[in-house]
Design brief:
By secondary structure, the chain is of the alpha/beta class. Helices cover about 25% and strands about 25% of the residues. The chain has helices at about 60-75, 95-105, 115-130, 140-145, 170-180, 195-200; strands at about 35, 45-50, 85-90, 110-115, 135-140, 155-160, 180-190, 205-210, 215-220. The radius of gyration is 26 Å and the shape is globular. It comes from Variovorax guangxiensis.
């Protein structure tokens, strides 16, 4: 005897995920290049794009703000200005450090960068800001410092790639030689440099802070002490 046919089940409505078991988030699209901003001076709040480049790691805004407060106190001009200063940003990247100095009245700022695309970006920013005090050079920052006349610079910014440890000592040595007697070196590194290491290069720690993985040092010629 044939069995009666079962009625087809109506499609049940989709059940919501149990409480506490959220559905997986959609895959994130690649984020657009981030930005940093100029903290003070003529171009205050100007935003600088950060290209998506391996190893490109711009100094965080709050670290730069502290750094330029330190430098302004040494300049003694008030208003955070660095009037007449001569500067080299030896591993420029986005140019945030050198452009900040130019924004605050530095008389000359050399931005050195080896990556052609970053050099083109720096040129575009220079044109946009009409930054007459800024000069851009594609090449090796250590070589540029070695070419600088001894005792000619007020501040040297050193922010090499963290994974290229071999750059640090020659860059510090060349920077120390290029400084005026009361000049400064800003060093950004993946570790804190010891007093003994710095003394061997003719430098001494003046100010220091750590922010995340960044060890930020403001150094001065050893003869100036660590006031």
């Amino acid at each position: 005897m044939p069995q009666p046919q079962k009625k087809a089940k109506a499609a049940s409505p989709a059940r919501s995920a149990p409480a506490g078991n959220k559905p997986k988030a959609a895959v994130k699209r690649p984020s657009k290049p981030s930005e940093v901003r100029i903290i003070g001076g003529e171009w205050k709040r100007t935003r600088l794009a950060v290209a998506d480049k391996p190893g490109l790691r711009p100094t965080p805004d709050r670290v730069r703000e502290t750094l330029f407060n330190w430098l302004a106190s040494l300049a003694g001009a008030g208003g955070g200005e660095l009037p007449g200063w001569r500067c080299v940003d030896a591993f420029a990247g986005t140019g945030a450090l050198g452009l900040e100095a130019a924004s605050r009245g530095a008389a000359s700022v050399l931005l050195c960068e080896q990556d052609a695309a970053l050099v083109a970006q720096l040129q575009a920013v220079k044109t946009k800001l009409e930054a007459e005090a800024v000069r851009i050079e594609r090449g090796n920052g250590v070589t540029a410092l070695e070419r600088a006349p001894a005792g000619s610079l007020d501040v040297v910014f050193l922010d090499p790639p963290f994974d290229n440890a071999a750059l640090y000592e020659p860059a510090l040595r060349a920077a120390a030689r290029s400084l005026r007697a009361e000049g400064s070196v800003y060093l950004e590194a993946p570790r804190r440099w010891s007093g003994e290491e710095l003394a061997a290069l003719g430098l001494a720690e003046f100010r220091y802070l750590k922010a995340g993985a960044v060890h930020a040092h403001l150094l001065r010629p050893a003869a100036q002490g660590t006031a």
